[in-house]
TrEMBL record:
Organism field: Crocosphaera watsonii WH 8501
PROSITE patterns associated with the record: NA_SOLUT_SYMP_3
Alphabetized Pfam families for the sequence: SSF
Transmembrane region(s): 6-23, 87-105, 134-156, 176-197, 203-221, 320-339, 359-387, 433-454, 463-483, 489-510, 578-595
Subcellular location(s) per record: Membrane
CDD domains named among the record's database cross-references: SLC5sbd_u1
Upper taxonomic lineage: Bacteria, Bacillati, Cyanobacteriota, Cyanophyceae, Oscillatoriophycideae
GO cellular component, one term: plasma membrane
Keywords assigned by UniProt, alphabetized: Membrane, Transmembrane, Transmembrane helix
Protein name: Na+/solute symporter
Mode of membrane association: Multi-pass membrane protein
Family listed: Belongs to the sodium:solute symporter (SSF) (TC 2.A.21) family.
GO molecular function: D-glucose:sodium symporter activity
Amino acid sequence: MQLIDWIIILIYLFGTMALGLLLSHQETKTDDEDDKPTSIVYNFIAGRNLPWWLAGTSMAATTFSIDTPLYICGVVATRGIAGNWEWWSFGIAHIVLIYVFAGLWRRSEMVTDAELTELRYGGRTAAILRATKAFLFAVPINCIGIGYAMLAMVKVVDALQLWQSLGFDPGEATKLWTVIALSVFVLIYTGVSGLWGVVVTDFFQFFLGLFGAMLVAVIAVNDAGGVRELIPNVQQITDFDVLSFIPITNNGGLNFTWNDAAGITATTFSAYIFVQWWSFRRSDGGGEFVQRLLAVKGETDEAAKKEAEKATWFFNILHYIVRTWPWIITALAAMVLLPNLEDAELAYPTLMLNYLPSVVLGLVVASLIAAFMSTISTSINWGASYLTNDLYRRFFRPDATDQELTDAVRLASLLVTVLGSIAAFYATDVRTVFRLVIAIGTGPGLVLILRWFWWRINAAAELSAMVTGFLIGLVTTINPAINNIFPDFGWRLLGISVLTALVWITVMYLTPPEDEQTLLNFYEKVRPGGIGWQYQQYKSGLEPAQNLQNDLLKVVAATLVMFGSMFAIGGFLLLQSITGFVSLTIAIIGGFWLRKLSKKRTLPMQDPEFHDVY
């Protein structure tokens, strides 16, 4: 790294800090002081005033951390392009979020997803569920995520020899404290500017990160001899089908078989497609995404719903269609340019150091720091929202003043940062921690979906699902003997999902349903579709605010559009013209179908013979 590279990095850091501090003076505009949002609403959901494009970009920035390109280099090198289904599969859940859950979340008008539990359920069990969920999401789950983002930063600092470029060689502890210092830097502007500071800086950080990823991809492919030389070379140096998008072989007609040369097993691939996306704790949105959806503006329910849907669509386009291929192409180039690299996750920063010229290197390093900071800032704000809104205000100081809540937000932000830094000391490699995050979050997804559409789901069922999935995922990760029960990661995901389902279904039928008034209040507020709330529809006289059947068809059509578009781009980039044209055709068909479905309106409530279901 040359002096000019450091100057570029410092300009970025000071610019980000200035923007964050400037946004600390952002004030909501309203004529009536009584109508101004509380500090909780302002800090965590930006006064419900985010435009869709800013919310969508922030969602994409949140999922683009410094660990992401490292993780994808490791995945492609060990399991091929098809190994990316480990995160591609969540695209199905994100499409479901657009048409099924975005409007429901926005109508709930919650501050956090944990707060929803006491709208959907009632009594002491609901309070225990809210507190448990807030603690698990804010501390172990969130801090593990912060820790492995810090681990990735440590690996980048090491591979790029940033300290060495300044003339001295610090030990490992000093490198880690450097990452912690960056987190404190983020903490300053996150703590004073709230969600507005997070999402606005996310906007600039995301596009800087995307620009950096494209620069690395172009230069790496060029140094590998161009795409036409890269494709045969990368296939030649691997003993599996590294270039396959979907590891299934067509033997003519409708005869499809598994590609034995694939880098992943059939059970693991099947678990990604058919289990992981709905079994994971974010099956109905969850966490940071819901925070953005709750923050979008809209003077009416319908306007807010449309803003939430547009925000989620924009996220999907940026996250899957736009951002996928720069990372994957860089990973393929790294396999050719750095064939003897022991740690495939280090391929990305090693490529940068060896092949990027001065100035460009400074820009790309700044882009990686931006990716790191966007994820950390979101995690800090998100974790603090649970600790402040769902623990401190709910259980300790329900009558807290705005100033007390503001102080609690800042203290909670500091606590989350410290705990995340501690977690970084125990992280070893990005892929292992990523799978730990998936494992401890697998299991409760089905009950989270069903609670919106079936009155019988109760607080005890959700609580047991969440705790069981977390414990099984944790034990199977840290105990190799138990983990050896499962032949591969796919069987492990299936095992966690089945065991968790057996527990929560048993608990649900052994415990009473929620009381009638609680269920009626929830329905009147959110008005979900489907047949699971027929009694509440009848009692309230309110029609559902969604046509669930039509929305599910939209999900299928939109899935064709998104994955068809993504694979069309990949097919043409990697000279797989048949894949490109077939995928493009699928995307176009899905687009026409989606347009037709979008013209339909919510069906009026019918008047069948209702019976007392209690």
